[in-house]
Amino acid sequence: MKNITIAIDGFSSTGKSTLAKQLAKHFGYIYVDTGAMYRAVTFFAMENGYISKDFFDKETLINSLPSIKLHFEFNADLGFAEMFLNDINIEKEIRTIEVSSFVSKVAEVSQVRAKLVEQQQEMGKNKAIVMDGRDIGTVVFPDAELKIFMTASAETRAQRRFEELQAKGDNVSYEEVLKNVQERDYIDTHRDDSPLVIADDAIEIDNSYLSREEQFQAVLDLVDEVINS
């Protein structure tokens, strides 16, 4: 059975990471959450006072990029790899609504994207990888054998995200989460560098009314078709 590269792109809170983890586990592939990498850089900027609601010191962040070391470590108990920033586990810290509110702005910075894309391409040079993000099929792996683009209504995605945050004990409102989803959609699709677009050869999946199991089976059939072709 040949190894392939599976690129999963799409809007925020469409379940890209959930699907990618399912596929990686099923096929024994490496899974890379590129969103976690951008969140880690965002967290670094927040911790160092480079970004806030009304302020973003892009130049200082750009100059600090050489001091940002990112890596993933597999957690057997959780069943997936966690994000480490300069050897510190920040998996929990990067999943907050505060980080979500700034991550698209940080991801707009061309120098940040260049640094992370280079790392992502190195991770996938031997294939047998599932990677999800915003520009995987268009920029990181334009020659990926299978490209999936995931979408759902903003309201559906906000409700999913709201329930996730509530389950973690975060005190947020649905309206706040919906506003964040809509703002991220706008920034992701309108940035000058690598905007969120559907690759010409990507297969679009609207999962507004699909269960996780239905979605997984649909994509599993697509992967099997590519692998066995």
Describe this structure in words.
- With 229 residues, this protein is α/β, with parallel strands linked by helices.
- Helices cover 48% and strands 19% of the residues.
- The protein has nine helices and ten strands.
- The strands form three sheets. A five-stranded parallel β-sheet has the order 2-8-1-9-10. Strands 5-6-7 form a three-stranded antiparallel β-sheet, with helices on one face. The chain has a two-stranded antiparallel ribbon with strand order 3-4.
- A hairpin with a 2-residue loop joins strand 3 and strand 4.
- Helix 1 crosses helix 9 (212-227) and helix 2 packs across helix 4 (97-107).
- It is globular.
- The relative contact order is 0.22.
- The mean pLDDT is 94.
Summarize the structure.
By secondary structure, the chain is of the alpha/beta class.
Task: Provide keyphrases for this structure.
229 residues, alpha/beta, three-stranded antiparallel β-sheet, 9 helices
The order of strands across the largest sheet is 2-8-1-9-10
Estimate the strand proportion: 15-25%
Which regions have little confidence, pLDDT < 50, spanning 5+ residues? none
Give the SSE order as H and E letters.
EHEHEEHEEEHHEHEHHEH
Kindly, what is the distance between the CA atoms of the first and last residues, rounded to a whole number of angstroms?
A: 10 Å
Radius of gyration: 17 Å
Give the beta-strand count: 10
Task: Give the mean pLDDT.
Answer: 94
Main sheet specs = 5 strands, parallel
Helix content: 40-55%
Question: What is the SS-derived class?
Answer: alpha/beta
Give the number of helices. Answer: 9
The dominant shape is: globular
